[in-house]
Structures are given as structure tokens and as C-alpha cells.
Amino acid sequence: MENFEFEHKKNLASSRLLIDTSLRRFAGRKEKVVMTQAAPQQKARNPIFARIAAAKASVGGNIIRDGKYTFGILKMLADSEAKFNGHMFIVEFTVLASESLPDIVDEKSGKPVLANAVGSTCSYVLNLDKNIAAMGNAKSFVMALLNQPNESEIDLEDFAETLEALVAQDQPARGMIIKDETFRKTIRGGVNAGKPFTGHRWQYVEETEEQIKARRAEFDKVAAVAAAAAATGAPTA
Asked: In whole numbers, what is the pLDDT of the chain averaged over residues?
């Protein structure tokens, strides 16, 4: 499995990053991201990507229940504040494997918390404007996805460009998988001080480009069946 290597380029002002959809993963040596010349008048990058790149990596979570997981990535988004109440970083998953954690109970019901079921979908949702830890949470996720464990070795400009490519329309991360194990901690300050918080330990998963390509095709097939069923009103399997 090749890893993405964030290689600093001298002429970034006149270049842009291209990630080759599902075919840039990788056996044995580090993969260099591909830079090509930009159009003369290229749309300015959303500054939110640079803010994530500059953030201190951390962990966080939303919607995913306590548990151990293997997730397949369906989509990565970075939506503007015009659509949501603030800039949002969103990763949509399908659950490929899950395991509930022992001794984790719901504070209100007192019942055990069950992990999201295999075959279900869930999302990792971060409000980058309202959550002080959200920038670091987003960065931590992307670092794990691309097998970049050493934050000190990351070039911020390249990281921001890579992040922008990951949320682009061609969705190069679709079909990749990532592992996650949640953990509990107590919020120390603010209006939610004393309340429990669910964080995430993301873990890189090594795969061949053929495996990723096949999974992406499988996801596309499932999505096509679901879309056809929705159009006709027929139930999906």
C-alpha cells in the first residue's frame, strides 16, 4: 500500500492538486501526489481548508455511537455556512464491521449502548465554526485516512490542497476504509462541563488499489439500485 507523501512544490501558486479517484493506493513505497498546471483564472480555495491544515490534530465525534468499527467511506463533504449554520466537515460512512464496547451505558436510560449495526450508514459531522476542537478533529481523521501519523512532517499548504481534493466532486476517498474505536471523556469547561463526550481513535487500513476500486464499484452499484427503487417506489433489499 502506497502512502500519500506530502511533497512541497515551489510553484504552488500556479498549480493545483489532482488525486486520481480510486487508483492512487498503493503497494510498498510512498505515493507522491500529482500536481498539474492550473487554469489561468482558477477559483480561489475555500480558506476553511487552510484553517483545518493549520489546526492541531485531535479527536472528536458526532452521530457514531460508542463502539469499534470498520467504516467504508461513501462521501466526504465540506459544506459552506450558506447551507448550514457554519462551515461543516462531513464524512458519510457505511458500517462494514462493528462491535459494542463493554460497560458503556446510556446516561438517560441506563441501558447498554449498542454500536451502529453492520450495513447501516452513519456520519461524522463537525461544525468547524462552533466547535473549538472541530478543526483538529477533521485534521486527525484525514491524517489517519492517508497514513500520516507525524503531524510535524506535514506541509500545511499541501495538506490543505489534499483536503480540498478529497471533498471534490469526483470523491477520490469513496471506497476506502478506515477503522475507529470510540472512547469516553468528560468535558472540562464551558456550558457542557461535566458531561460525557465521545471521541474517536481513527486507524489507517492498508489495502491495494484493486480492493479500493472493487469496493467503490460495489458502493456505486448499491447506490444505483437504491436510486432506481426510489424512482419507482419499490423497496430495496
From this structure: 77
Question: Which residues, other chains included, contact 69 with Cβ-Cβ below 8 Å and sequence gap of 6+?
Answer: 95, 96, 97, 98, 99, 115, 116, 179, 180, 181
**Helix (H, G, I), strand (E, B), or coil: what is residue 214?**
helix
Residue 111 to residues 79, 104, 107, 114, Cα–Cα distance (Å): 35, 8, 8, 9
Q: Cα–Cα distance between 198 and 186 in angstroms, integer?
A: 9
With cell 462541563, the residue in question is 193
Q: Which residues contact 14 (CB under 8 A, 6 or more apart)?
A: 37, 38
Length of the chain in terms of residues written: 237
Domain ranges of the chain: 4-232
Look at the pTM and tell me if it is higher than 0.85.
no
Distance, CA of 62 to CA of 60 (rounded, Å): 7
Indicate the pairing of strand 34-37 with strand 15-18: antiparallel
Handedness of CA 158, 27, 22, 34 (dihedral sign): positive
For residue 43, report the phi and psi dihedrals to the nearest 5 degrees.
-60, 135
